[in-house]
Amino acid sequence: MMELHPSDRPPDGETDVVYSRCNGSEAEDTSCAVCGVPIIITPGQLRTKKYKRYEWWDPCAIHAEGYHYEAPERYSSLEAHDLPVEIYGFDDIEIEYVHRGRNSQKRLLNVGLEEYPYIGLHRKCLDMMQRLVSYRKALASQGVAVTDPRSLSQIYEVLEYRITRPGIQRAQGVESSLSSITTRQVIEPHDYYFRVMDVPGNVQWPIGRPDVFEYEVDPFPIPGLTDQILAYLEPLPEHRRGCDEPSTQLLKLPVEIVEEIYLHLHPFVDPGRACTYYLPSDTWRDFLFYRQLLPWLWDLDVAVLRDRSLQPDDGSQPLYDAENYWNWEQLVRMLAQTEIFEPGNDMSKAPLRLRNRRRIWRLLDEARLRDVDDWLDNTQVEQ
Ligand SMILES: [Zn+2]
User: Fold this and answer.
1) How many angstroms does the Cα of residue 124 sit away from the middle of ligand 1?
2) Is 7 in contact with 224 (CB distance < 8 Å)?
3) Ligand 1 centroid to 71 CA: how many Å?
4) Distance from Cα 257 to the centre of ligand 1, integer Å
5) Pair 258, 287: CB distance under 8 Å
6) 318 alpha carbon – ligand 1 mean position (Å)
């Protein structure tokens, strides 16, 4: 077992979960359409064990309809639709493939031949989806050019397309190497950013295997999150410390214009790593804690900035909220790198939960309508 960050360690008695399961279609798992990790594994013994570490695999389903309009090709949809999205809990959804066709009132998940399928996902992934939508809507309302999808029904449509497109392709007689993929797993053009390459397309999740543990951990809450992030904060270079002169002409502008410029820093994804020092360092701190510049860090605790017990302990350094001492720009630029928590990168020692949260947010952030087209076309099998 790899060395785990204390906040990632499973509760006692839950460290040996590796399951051996029978083969066959009834042993297939149903995965979350957002993060690719199971919402339910079959058979159901694991559910009866009630492991705490898998509690967050709480499934739900989303469903929207009415955004297609009649057009020569099937997938024409309304512009910028923001339609009601129904949400169903565990008791309303059907995930046991064996029940299919029975007289069930429950909603079957991910049925690729239906125009508007019920899509299975984790509650927590739905929560992050809602956060992303709120973030994009708020920016759009302030005039920032944000990308679609920016409503829940638009994200639903992205996922719906991924579910139904392989079926349409098959109906058109096009074979791809993914034709055999089951409806229990939704295709995703980045293979969900799993580095463990035998996970995508595998109908059974290798539950409890050490190399997939990072995908199994709960993306939130993260114990001591703010503390973990601030562990990477460094002092400013000595010649820049204590300098409270505005370092740029920008701060001589009217505040309304400056605010407008700040707004257009969003979305702050994969910016350059090098600090420009155009803005005072403390402005970057405020971007991080008060302005949601990194919206996937929605739960940072401002009180930690003034908490002496979390400070570096040599006694010589000021609190985290000290003016012009810490290099907040460096920290924010580092955090904004999409792969910063991946092995070999600067923050790879951070809790796995943080790595998983960043992965899930990235999957949502990069999702686009029809984004599986090229990917599917490239997997076509020569006839
Ligand atoms: Zn998920």
Assistant:
1) 7
2) yes
3) 33
4) 40
5) no
6) 40
- Could you tell me the distance, in angstroms and rounded to a whole number, from the CA of residue 286 to the centre of ligand 1? 30
Q: 263 alpha carbon to ligand 1 midpoint, in Å?
A: 30
Domain ranges across the chain:
6-221+362-377, 225-350
- Asked if 151 contacts 80 with a C-beta cutoff of 8 angstroms, the reply is yes
Between CA 74 and CA 205 the distance in angstroms is: 33
383 residues of the chain, pLDDT tens digit each: 467 888 888 887 777 666 666 555 556 788 999 999 998 776 666 667 788 889 999 999 999 999 988 776 666 889 899 999 999 998 888 765 544 555 567 788 887 777 899 999 999 999 999 999 999 999 999 999 999 999 999 999 999 999 988 777 766 776 665 544 556 778 899 999 999 878 876 778 888 888 899 999 999 999 999 999 999 999 999 988 876 555 567 778 898 998 998 999 999 999 999 999 988 899 999 999 999 999 999 999 999 988 866 666 666 778 888 888 999 999 999 999 999 999 999 999 999 999 999 999 999 999 999 999 888 877 665 44
CA of 246 to the centre of ligand 1 (A): 44
Could you tell me the distance, in angstroms and rounded to a whole number, from the CA of residue 322 to the centre of ligand 1? 39
Structural tokens at position 16? 């040996």
What is the 20 CA–ligand 1 centroid distance (Å)? 23
Whole-angstrom CA distances from 129 to 111, 226, 328, 363 are 21, 22, 28, 10
Long-range residue pairs from 317-325, CB within 8 A, at least 24 positions apart, any chain: 317/235, 320/230, 320/233, 321/285, 323/244, 323/282, 324/236, 324/240, 324/241, 324/242, 324/243, 324/244, 324/280, 324/281, 324/282, 325/235, 325/236, 325/241, 325/242, 325/281
**Full-model pTM:** 0.91
Ligand 1 geometric centre to CA of 253 (Å): 44
